[in-house]
Amino acid sequence: MNRISDGRLLHLEKSRALKMARSTHAYVRGNTAKFYEWLAQSRSADRLPAGPAIWICGDCHLSNLGPVADAKGRVDVQIRDLDQSVIGNPAHDLIRLGLSLAAAARGSDLPGVTTARMVEEMVEGYGHAMADRDEAETPEPNVVRAVRRQALGRRWHHLAHERLDDVEPRLPLGKKFWSLEADEKLALDALFEDPAVTAMILSLSGRDEDDRVRLVDAAYWKKGCSSLGNLRFAALVAIGGSKKAPAEHALIDLKEAVAALAPSTDRKAMPRDDAERVVAGARALAPNLGSRMLATHLLGKPMVLRELLPQDLKLEIAQFSSGEATRAARYLAYIVGVAHARQMRAADRGRWAKAIGQRQSADIEAPTWLWDSIVDLAASHEAGYLEHCRLYALAQAA
């Protein structure tokens, strides 16, 4: 069987509905499809600047940025989820980030004027990246600095306690990890005998390329929100040493790569295989992560394999102050801008910075196309969220 069983799928759909009912921000995070549907119907859609055809995240919300370690253990704040990456219009990443920040501000009970200031600061931060200015001109806000410091101090035992509930080399079956189907187990056993998979795992700093990689345990992984309903596996592997005393363990994430919902401006320039598309997008936008990813196949599905490192963390901001919100908007837009700018020549960066900075209103120091898009989408998502909650409540009562 190379698809999710009916029982699994029903449980995953219920879990996704619950997650999206928890807050407007959670609804925004889990509804990439609606974002692009509503964006296409927005009255602002025709006024978006046509940016250079580069790799974009495609799902550039707040929680998809955070500290990410590279293969040598160095940590930078980068985009950390590239499932929707396509060659497209970089304006879409700015709007998606702005909508996410606006939803987070609403969840923090901040006034609308703070959201307006956040959008202005986004444009400033993104413009600094296009101008290749030093990061010191866009200081890291406290909420990001705290997560980065946490990431730098993390080791394997932190990851094991967080993901596995223990440091013992087993995946605890239960709420997050589910038993494999027979064909899934056979397929995973075969996958971890693949030399390409072994080479990727051994490519991390400090490992011997001649070490043996042994699959210790594997499970279906109930993880994420928008990806619930697709194949997802966790694999625990032993590296080096002996069978009884491995030198170390590693936790591997295997995630099904599905067709991108984000619109592309140049489909012919992208790999046709979705796993290869995701890896190519990661290498362009988040080199720390891209250097640790491998496109492969499992049970006839394109899959992206990557080792989870203790330093990989997402930004989870429960509450913003007004000052932190504006500083975060500036800094995170700068990080997205750096990911975009590294793909452009200097002349293209200059033209794009000029295009996005144009505004038609004296009422706000931000481009009208960006502000109007965020306002339209915030209103649409609020209505969609309330309807989702109504339907969720009715389903629970039935």
Would you tell me the overall average pLDDT?
85
DSSP helix fraction: 40-55%
Rg is 21 Å
Strand segment count: 10
Specify the overall morphology: globular
H and E string: HHHEEEEHHHHEHHEEEHHEEHHH
Quickly list its features:
single chain, 398 residues, alpha+beta, 6-stranded antiparallel β-sheet, two-stranded antiparallel ribbon, 14 helices, 15% strand, globular
Explain this structure to me?
With 398 residues, the protein is an alpha+beta fold. The longest helix has 30 residues, at 368-397. The protein has helices at 6-21, 24-29, 32-41, 91-107, 112-130, 142-152, 156-164, 182-191, 195-202, 274-285, 287-290, 322-341, 346-357, 368-397; strands at 54-56, 65-69, 75-79, 86-88, 177-178, 213-221, 232-239, 248-256, 293-298, 301-308. It has a six-stranded antiparallel sheet with strand order 5-6-7-8-10-9, with helices on both faces. It is built from 14 helices and ten strands. α4 runs antiparallel to α5 and α5 packs antiparallel against α13 (346-357). The radius of gyration is 21 Å and the shape is globular.
Short structural description:
The chain is of the alpha+beta class. The chain folds into two domains: 6-52 and 93-152 and 319-397, no CATH class; 156-308, no CATH class.
Topology, pairings included?
Blueprint: H1 6-21, H2 24-29, H3 32-41, E1 54-56, E2 65-69, E3 75-79, E4 86-88, H4 91-107, H5 112-130, H6 142-152, H7 156-164, E5 177-178, H8 182-191, H9 195-202, E6 213-221, E7 232-239, E8 248-256, H10 274-285, H11 287-290, E9 293-298, E10 301-308, H12 322-341, H13 346-357, H14 368-397
Antiparallel strand pairs: 1-4, 2-3, 5-6, 6-7, 7-8, 8-10, 9-10
